[in-house]
Structure formats: C-alpha cells, structure tokens
Amino acid sequence: MLSIIQAAGWPIWPLILCSILALALVLERGVQLQNDKVMPAQLLAQTIEAMQRGMPAQEIIQKLDKAGVMGPVLASGLRCLQENPKASDTDLQASMQMAGRLAAQQLERYLPALATIASAAPLLGLLGTVVGMIDIFGAHTASSNQPALLAHGISVALYNTAFGLIVAIPSLMFWRYFRALVDRHVLAMEVAAETFARHLARLRT
C-alpha cells in the first residue's frame, strides 16, 4: 500500500487527507445524531408532567437546556412565558421557531463539509490521474520505448482515480443517510414543539 501511495505521487495526499476528514465527520455525526442526543425519550411527556406537578418554571428551563438538541427549543417557549406572561400565541411560536432553526442548524453541522468531500474526491482523483499521465508521456521518448513501464505507469496513475472514488462513494452515502436522519429529527422536533405550544396555551386559559 505504501509503495502505491509513493508511486501515485503528490496528488494522492489531498485524497488521503479527505479520507481522514470524512471518517472523522462520519463518526462525529454518527454520535451526535443519535436519538438520545437529539430528543431524549419521553422528554416532552416528562416536561408536561413536571409542569402539572407545579415544578418551578426556572428549574424546568434549566433541565431542558441540558436535554439534547430538543430541550432548548421547549425551554424557549417556557422562557418566553416566564419573561412575558401576557405573550401572545404568535410571540410564543416565534420564540420556539427561532430556537428550532438554531437546533436544525446544529443538526446539520459538518454535513456541508461531508458533501464537499463527496463532490471533490473524484475530481482530485482525476487530477492525480492527469498529472500522472503527463509525467508518464513526458518521460516517454522514442529511445526509451518500454511498453511494460508505460503500462505500469498508467496503472499507477489510475490508482488516483480509484482512490478518489473509494473516498467519494462512502462519503456520499453517509451524507445522504445523515441528511435523511436530520430531516426526520427536524420533523419530530416540529411536532413536539407544536404539542408543547398548545399545552402552554391551555395553561394560560
């Protein structure tokens, strides 16, 4: 493997860097997009139950701020009512929507970078192949006509394209998977936020 990397030349080093970065992003997103990290089980039900038991709003807000990505969204609605008990339903929804957008941005963190790697890796592989072919044909003269060496050089140059695809294909697959996972989490958060907003509206009546 080391001999292939050495023979492929300098263009393969950006691909190796991309592969390491892609692996790090996949592991990081794989951990951070787990259900317990985004929306802990029974978070909404436990929050509503705590409010019905008469738990102080400030204590509930403090717990929600630490409850995954969804917690601060719910806390924003409760904090809005705490700061302005006469806040309208529109004000309440606007506060939670703003927190929801921040939460969605947090879920999408690093996904653009992973998509960029998936797009750039094949081009970097092609660049390595072109550079390798230029070097091969530049060194090939009539006095040094050795088909075996030429064939070997071409095969080595193509390693760049192959490695680019090896990096790009898994990166693209993981990006699409994480993109769908984020969309699912965002939908679940919207439903939970709407349910919590209706509950807060009933408390004021």
Automatic annotation (TrEMBL):
Ranges where the MotA/TolQ/ExbB proton channel domain occurs: 69-190
Membrane-crossing residue ranges in chain numbering: 12-31, 110-134, 154-175
Record lineage: Bacteria, Pseudomonadati, Pseudomonadota, Betaproteobacteria, Burkholderiales
Any Gene Ontology CC annotation: plasma membrane
GO biological process: protein import
Subcellular location: Cell membrane; Membrane
Assigned protein family: Belongs to the exbB/tolQ family.
Record's protein name: Flagellar motor protein MotA
Membrane topology: Multi-pass membrane protein
InterPro entries in UniProt: ExbB/TolQ_transport, MotA_ExbB_proton_chnl
Predominant cellular place of this UniProt entry's protein: membrane
UniProt-listed Pfam families: MotA_ExbB (PF01618)
